[in-house]
Amino acid sequence: MTDSRPIGFFDSGVGGLSVWKEVVRRLPHEATIYFADSAHCPYGSRPIAVVRALSAAITRFLLAQDCKLIVVACNTASAAALEWLRAEFDVPIVGMEPALKPAAEATQTGHVGVLATEGTLNGYLFKNTAQRHTGGIKVHVQVGEGLVEQVELGRLDTPETERLLRQYLEPMLAAQVDQIALGCTHYPLLLPLIERIVADRAQVIDPAQAVARQVQRVLMLHSLETAAGCVAWHRFYTTGQKELLAALLSQLKWKRVEISRVQLEPARNASGAD
Prior knowledge:
By secondary structure, this protein is α/β, with parallel strands linked by helices. The chain has helices spanning 17-26, 48-64, 75-88, 100-106, 118-121, 124-133, 147-152, 159-174, 191-198, 208-221, 242-251; strands at residues 7-11, 32-36, 69-72, 93-94, 111-116, 138-143, 179-183, 203-205, 234-238, 258-261. It has 2 domains: 7-95 and 209-261, Rossmann fold, CATH 3.40.50; 100-206, Rossmann fold. It has 11 helices and 10 strands. The strands form 2 sheets. Strands 4-3-1-2-9-10 form a 6-stranded parallel beta sheet, sandwiched between helices. It has a 4-stranded parallel beta sheet with strand order 6-5-7-8, with helices on both faces. Helix 1 (17-26) links the parallel strand 1 (7-11) and strand 2 (32-36). The chain is globular and about 50 Å long. The termini are far apart.
């Protein structure tokens, strides 16, 4: 039995494309729909209730497009809303988890770094993962303020982006961090610049591959896989400017894509959101 319905992805903006492209690479026969909520980006400093309301509205939109599985390709939304969404919607949902466990397992110096948004670092998922997997290990956390905005504007390799990254990464490296976990899906889109700054001083952990493996496992578990040989299609929606999303997709070698601009109207009663 096969299921040719699309997989739905959403993020506060374009950052979740780092997860989307890894899932597409691993599962080339699966159709996808990607929703970039760039009009409300960034989510990192927004109240939990607001992030939940936005996440619920996007999930309803994706389900209306007949998506068979939802990927919350946003660390902040996962921290604020993942378990809540699973309780609200009868559909398999895969989210992002901080990559602290592989960082803690791989460290030789006993020092690991986490570059993330404020919402991720303050969330239950991060605190729970840190408590369970980093005993005896020093975790150096840093809010990547301004990086999401740079990615949203397509500024993946500019002097200002490099200045911000150096400001955030150099203190970690000086503290003998040898593993750096990226706790925002926007940040892997800056990997070439990050790796140029870090050089051989630390290992940078991008969680996208682990998420793609989990998507594959969930599809198999629920018998939702598309038949091999099917021709996949990919559709994109944004609440922001179509041109910015198209430009970033072009940088990722996706040039002929269907992009639509939509308005998002979150419910005003989602867990106290206003």
